[in-house]
Design a protein that fits this description.
By secondary structure, the chain is an alpha/beta fold. It contains 13 helices and eleven strands.
Length: 377
């Protein structure tokens, strides 16, 4: 048996013909920047998230960075203001904050959901904090009622890092109804990096928001700070979602629900079969809910992680670690002030991501789970 952690050829194989046709459409259109490929996708992603506006940009990092830059230009945040962010996220969440001149303040996650909670946000509050960035890590929606209450009561901006959770949906207790990931905060950043549940064939990202002023500012900042040709109001950047990537994403968008449902089935299979005292499984969402779209299926191995990783490798199964070193321990964040972050630091030593691709059969997931169960016997 040989199972890669994720095989991108297999991810895209079912759509090869459609992708090729879409590529030809863009190539023969002669329009390689902007245009209807991009704005068509913007409308679909906005509708999926349940918001009014979407702006295609070059990556997930740019999406989050541009939101931060826009709030600074709009005067809603000022250089040096603090933004609460989970300590166990990918470094891009931190970089987006820092690169806009703001200060990331890492918050320790809950060890069970591996996401931050309203309680932890409340403990980390100070007058310098102006925003919170819940990260829907591994595809699991990260907000809770308390977080939303604090954000609203304290006037914090809530900027969702939705890089890993497009299509996830959950209710917020105390608020009426349920919300799609990307649709509850003041704004959200989405990534279309190829490994994402909706992945391009290259880089791509999008900002989604209900705030027209913010959307206009992001659009301008992403276009050299200009909304009128050769008139530059702000010191912007160049960050575009290419039409060729928008066309690839438009093909794959139709299948996103199906992809997320298949990943849920694989997660359920792992959950029902894995039974090894060395392995702590992730919590399953409530039956019938899509509060996790399983961008990763991440187990914790408090003892012998390297050994189980090697055991799986010997049996032909590749795993990955998301993430082996939290951002606050990276050299680029040396000197960053923060509280003790024991959970994030422990998780970095314990987490292990099993293969989870929509192309995998349930039999294969069952087989991988069986191999895990044989470890340590
Ligand atoms: C949680 C999180 N935030 C932000 C990003 C940045 O996205 P991109 O790689 O598209 O810049 C990623 C992607 O890897 C991510 O996983």
């Amino acid at each position: 048996m040989k199972v890669e952690h994720l095989n991108l050829m297999e991810v895209n194989k079912p759509y090869f013909d459609e992708l090729a046709q879409a590529a030809v459409r863009v190539i023969t259109s002669g329009r390689y920047i902007g245009g209807c490929e991009v704005c068509g996708l913007e409308q679909k992603i906005a509708a999926l998230c349940g918001v009014a506006h979407a702006v295609g940009v070059a990556s997930g990092l740019d999406a989050l960075r541009l939101v931060m830059m826009a709030y600074v230009e709009m005067g809603l945040m000022h250089k040096g203001d603090e933004v609460l962010v989970p300590a166990n996220t990918y470094v891009a969440s931190f970089l987006a904050i820092s690169q806009a001149g703001l200060m990331p303040v890492p918050v320790d996650p809950d060890p069970v959901t591996m996401n931050i909670t309203g309680k932890a946000v409340s403990r980390a509050m100070s007058s310098r904090v102006k925003a919170v960035m819940p990260v829907h890590l591994y595809g699991r929606v990260a907000w809770d009622g308390e977080m939303v209450r604090i954000a609203r009561n304290e006037g914090l901006l809530m900027i969702e890092d939705c890089a890993q959770a497009l299509g996830a949906r959950s209710t917020v207790e105390g608020l009426y109804g349920s919300f799609n990931a990307g649709g509850l905060g003041n704004a959200a950043g989405i990534s279309f990096y190829p490994t994402k549940n909706l992945g391009a064939l290259g880089d791509g990202g999008m900002v989604v928001t209900n705030d027209k002023q913010l959307a206009d500012m992001v659009r301008s900042l992403a276009n050299y700070g200009s909304s009128r040709r050769y008139h530059n109001e702000y010191m912007g950047i160049n960050s575009r979602l290419d039409p060729i990537q928008a066309a690839m994403l438009d093909v794959k968008f139709k299948y996103l629900d199906e992809v997320n449902a298949k990943r849920m089935d694989i997660a359920r299979m792992y959950d029902s079969v894995i039974d090894n005292p060395y392995v702590i499984k992730p919590v399953m969402p409530k039956p019938g809910s899509m509060e996790c779209v399983w961008h990763q299926y991440v187990v914790r191995v408090p003892k012998l992680r390297n050994e189980i990783l090697s055991f799986l490798k010997t049996h032909g199964v590749d795993t990955d670690i998301h993430y082996p070193c939290p951002p606050h321990m990276q050299p680029c964040y040396e000197g960053l002030k923060h509280e003790a972050l024991p959970v994030a630091e422990l998780l970095a030593e314990e987490v292990l991501s099993l293969p989870i691709g929509q192309y995998m059969s349930l039999d294969l997931a069952n087989e991988i789970a069986d191999i895990i169960n044989r470890f340590g016997q």
